[in-house]
């Protein structure tokens, strides 16, 4: 069962806007302010401090990291950083 979106009429929308404008603590957002809530397409911008590489790992090692859930690539990076500090 699909739900149908019922939009307010122009008169209803005008009443809603007028009511919102009477509340000084909760004024409607301007279009410029609303734009900040739009989801950007694609991957988030990186820090610029990392480089993409191709790395071949043993299957069992990779499975162990992936089994820990999201963030497994960061955990590999952290494990390599720890190794560097110790050697």
From TrEMBL:
<dbReference type="InterPro" id="IPR025528">
    <property type="entry name" value="BrnA_antitoxin"/>
</dbReference>
<dbReference type="Pfam" id="PF14384">
    <property type="entry name" value="BrnA_antitoxin"/>
</dbReference>
<feature type="region of interest" description="Disordered">
    <location>
        <begin position="1"/>
        <end position="29"/>
    </location>
</feature>
<protein>
    <submittedName>
        <fullName>Uncharacterized conserved protein, DUF4415 family</fullName>
    </submittedName>
</protein>
């Amino acid at each position: 069962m699909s739900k149908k979106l019922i939009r307010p009429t122009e008169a209803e929308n005008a009443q809603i806007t007028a009511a919102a404008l009477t509340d000084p603590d909760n004024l409607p957002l301007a279009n410029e302010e609303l734009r900040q809530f739009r989801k950007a397409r694609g991957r988030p911008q990186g820090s610029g401090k990392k480089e993409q590489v191709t790395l071949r790992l043993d299957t069992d090692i990779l499975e162990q990291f992936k089994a820990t859930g999201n963030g497994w690539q960061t955990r590999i990076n952290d494990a390599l950083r720890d190794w560097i500090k110790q050697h």
